[in-house]
Design a protein that fits this description.
481 residues; alpha/beta; Aspartate Aminotransferase, domain 1; Aspartate Aminotransferase, domain 2; 5-stranded mixed β-sheet; 3-stranded antiparallel β-sheet; 16 strands; 39% helix
């Protein structure tokens, strides 16, 4: 939650105590440069020991609570019929109101099962925006992803509160063009990861359902960050200020037909699930669960994870938990704006996103500016970030590069991990990078996987700019910084 200080400044306040710590090290810039060169200018390839602040992702990196840790001790390791699974189903029914639950090892496993079950070759899947693994799974079975966002969604300097909405006029055009029988389902992501963690509104969700339900098209929600989306609805949408996070989530679920999520985010544990009240949808997916994941009552998860997930699911509906990352992100983003650092606004529910095209406008999109920005931030600050731009797009069938709509460098904010001094440090180093942006150049691939290349592709800096940036940093701050 956020509080107002006597001077009128708003800051996030941590509603927890730190009882266990994990040491980190800030290596000198020369070492960071060596680590980045060894990693092929891909932050995924860095070793954890070389990282000061790990802002790569919020997936599986959120701090677990004492209650989650305690719940893991009562895990029932039975292969079939585990009591841990039934404690999870009780939590799902309590929080989401859904009685059918299919556990999976993480979100992309759910995407695989949904794609295999519901998408036929030649069909289309309208959505507010794609996620990398979502697009890969849906296209591998012959589907086509259609992103029906409004124009405002791509405006990184915006005050629009719900840039994760589907454009209803575009959705109607899609239905008229393809016909209901060619539409697998409509997917809504909470919050839209690649648009800067932007939420959708309840009003938009209701309007989508009203349009597609009479046509027999079902509504699917990716709820990986559903509590953050609910928190932002509470803050920004008329009529929801006095509603609890749990009430807002339940209202979403009453509109949706089926939910899937990566528990690595809102639930703060490694795992995932698919849930629904529609027996026909559940029964269509269920036979494939033991083929690809595991038995119906563990689905690729350990029983310890299932226990922690049940607790985390209930905890995510608490106001101070749902808002813990969102309020920190708001502070982080606003501090960047104060210092003239180009970031996505308004603040979302996932991370602070630097707009690489505004930060280094001299680097063409063909040279991956978001990837270059991620590398530069690590070299200058020891902060691991993630590229969310054209590197995260795979090539088309002809082998051509596919430019991304946005070139963002994501500084993820996991729940209850960082402190105010960490955000201030990050802002200061971003400010230095902006002042020395002319030293940053582009990247070129020298090793490139055929799919999801951002995970393991290797690149090199054009003109050796990494060495120049590290040298300037050492000159300004000293060789040991």
């Amino acid at each position: 939650m956020s509080i107002l200080l006597s001077n009128g400044k708003e800051i996030p306040i941590e509603m927890h105590k730190i009882r266990i710590v994990q040491r980190v090290r800030l290596a000198p810039a020369a070492e960071r440069l060596q680590a980045m060169e060894k990693a092929g200018y891909n932050t995924f390839m860095l070793r954890s020991r070389d990282i000061f602040l790990d802002m790569l992702t919020d997936s599986g990196t959120n701090a677990m609570t004492d209650l989650q840790q305690a719940a893991m001790m009562q895990a029932d390791d039975a292969y079939a019929g585990s009591e841990s699974f039934y404690r999870l189903t009780d939590a799902v029914e309590d929080v989401f109101g859904y009685k059918y639950v299919l556990p999976v090892h993480q979100g992309r496993a759910a995407e695989h099962l949904l794609a295999k079950t519901f998408i036929k070759p030649g069909q289309v899947v309208p959505m507010n925006y794609h996620f990398t693994t979502t697009r890969a799974h849906f296209e591998l079975v012959g589907g086509t992803v259609l992103e029906l966002y409004a124009d405002e969604a791509l405006n990184t300097q915006s005050s629009h509160p719900f840039k994760g909405n589907i454009d209803l006029a575009r959705l109607k055009e899609c239905i008229d063009k393809y016909g209901a029988e060619k539409i697998s389902f409509v997917r809504m992501e909470a919050t839209t990861n690649l648009l800067g963690g932007q939420p959708y509104s309840m009003e938009n969700l209701k309007a989508i359902k009203a349009m597609i339900e009479p046509l027999g098209i079902f509504l699917l929600i990716d709820g990986s960050l559903i509590s953050e989306n609910a928190y932002l609805i509470k803050q920004r949408e008329a009529g929801y200020a006095d509603k609890s996070i749990k009430e807002i989530i339940r209202e979403m679920m009453e509109i949706a037909d089926i939910l899937y999520l990566s528990a690595r985010k809102s639930c703060s544990v490694r795992g995932g699930m698919i849930a629904t009240n529609r027996k026909d949808l559940h029964d269509a997916i269920r036979p494939w669960l033991p083929v690809y994941e595991g038995f119906f009552t563990y689905g690729g998860m350990s029983s310890r994870e299932i226990e922690a997930m049940a607790v985390g699911m209930r905890e995510m509906t608490e106001l101070e938990v749902a808002g813990s990352a969102a309020d920190a992100i708001k502070y982080f983003v606003n501090r960047c704006v104060e210092e003239g650092i180009p970031v996505v606004t308004p603040p979302g529910g996932l991370a602070c996103h630097v707009d690489a095209r505004r930060m280094i406008p001299h680097v063409p999109q063909s040279q991956y500016p978001a990837g270059a920005m991620s590398a530069a931030i690590y070299i200058a600050a020891g902060i691991r970030t993630m590229e969310r731009g054209s590197v995260s797009m795979d090539r088309d069938r002809e082998g051509n590069d596919v430019p991304s709509d946005l070139e963002l460098c994501r500084l993820a904010v996991p729940r209850r991990i960082f402190t105010m001094s960490h955000y201030e440090y990050a802002v200061d180093r971003l400010k230095w990078i902006k002042a020395n942006a002319d030293l940053i150049g582009g990247l070129v691939f020298f090793e490139e996987p055929p799919v999801l290349r951002f995970f393991a592709g290797l690149m090199k800096p054009l003109g050796g700019w990494g060495q120049k940036l590290a040298a300037k940093f050492a000159q300004d701050f000293g060789p040991n910084c």
